[in-house]
Backbone:
């Protein structure tokens, strides 16, 4: 500062030669020593702190790098698992579809077989019902004919049975029982 | 047979036997019982609890008076008067069986479409005696449903020579 002020005052003095760029020679010595002392002090006192801060920063960065690597590895593993799961899903889907196809085919086959059996049973039952109905109708017709014939026979016999005939039947009975 | 019916039968047989006309009385009673069984109006009248007993007995005396012996009329009137109208056929059957047993006879119930003459009844009784080997107490029932011929029942033996049975056989064959 004093040098600078001196330089500025010197500019007022035309007898002095003034260099706007280079300092005086003594100032090189003072400035150099001052710089050395300052750098030495800085090296002495600030150096460890700087080294420590740099080491901490390096460690932090290393941790971040490690963390990033770990995250990347985890992500890659997850991606692998997802890819694997995707593959499993595709396989499962294929298996399920194949199983469903097989089951559907089996059900269809069983259904056809069952329907055929039921159709045969129904046909057999229908034929039996028809036969039974025919037999029943025939029996009913036969019974009705028998009933009407019986009534007709009874009426015919009743009309033919006069007292003489009845007495004759009584005499026949007595003769047969007593024979 | 219930003990009540049997008691009535035993007492009434004794009465008829004491009167000395058991055979005629049991024969008349048998005919009355058969009419009682087949005539719904007579049966409902004589068993109607709402009618006074005197009136029911009057009906009996009106129906049998002059047509049957006094003993028969009194026995039927007695049974009706004691409110045993529903048991009349059973009591009469018990009387007939008891009277027949007393004479070592078997009751032969003969159902026929026409009434039999005395000669026919005698010949029929002889024929049944010959057929069954038992002494017979013949009871003839005129039953139009027989149509013709005779159905004779002696104990458990049934000799069926009726037109009805032949028609039934024909019906079965048809």
Residues:
């Amino acid at each position: 500062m004093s040098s600078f002020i001196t330089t500025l005052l010197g500019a007022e003095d035309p007898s002095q030669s003034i260099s706007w760029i280079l300092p005086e020679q003594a100032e090189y010595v003072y400035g150099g020593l001052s710089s050395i002392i300052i750098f030495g002090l800085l090296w002495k006192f600030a150096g460890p702190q700087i080294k420590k801060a740099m080491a901490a920063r390096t460690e932090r960065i290393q941790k971040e790098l490690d963390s990033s690597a770990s995250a990347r590895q985890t992500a890659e593993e997850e991606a692998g698992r997802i890819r694997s799961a995707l593959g499993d899903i595709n396989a499962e889907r294929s298996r399920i579809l194949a199983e469903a196809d097989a089951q559907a085919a089996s059900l269809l086959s069983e259904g056809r077989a069952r329907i055929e059996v039921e159709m045969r049973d129904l046909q057999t039952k229908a034929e039996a019902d028809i036969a039974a109905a025919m037999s029943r109708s025939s029996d009913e017709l036969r019974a009705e004919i028998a009933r009407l014939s019986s009534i007709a026979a009874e009426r015919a016999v009743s009309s033919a049975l006069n007292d003489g005939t009845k007495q004759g039947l009584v005499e026949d009975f007595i003769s047969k029982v007593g024979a | 047979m219930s003990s009540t019916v049997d008691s009535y039968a035993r007492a009434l047989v004794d009465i008829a036997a004491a009167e000395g006309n058991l055979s005629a009385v049991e024969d008349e009673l048998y005919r009355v019982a058969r009419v009682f069984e087949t005539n719904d109006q007579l049966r409902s009248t004589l068993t109607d609890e709402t009618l006074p007993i005197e009136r029911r007995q009057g009906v009996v005396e009106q129906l049998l008076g002059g047509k049957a012996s006094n003993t028969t009329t009194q026995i039927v009137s007695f049974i009706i008067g004691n409110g045993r109208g529903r048991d009349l056929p059973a009591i009469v059957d018990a009387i007939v069986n008891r009277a027949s047993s007393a004479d070592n006879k078997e009751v032969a119930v003969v159902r026929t479409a026409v009434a039999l003459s005395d000669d026919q009844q005698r010949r029929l009784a002889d024929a049944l005696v010959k057929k069954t080997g038992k002494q017979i107490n013949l009871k003839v029932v005129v039953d139009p449903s027989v149509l013709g011929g005779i159905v004779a029942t002696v104990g458990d033996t049934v000799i069926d020579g009726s037109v009805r049975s032949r028609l039934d056989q024909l019906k079965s064959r048809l």
Notes: Chain A has three helices and no strands. Chain A has one domain: 23-161. Chain A touches chain B at residues 145-147, 149-150, 153-154, 157-158, 161, 163, 165-167, 169-178 (CB under 8 Å).
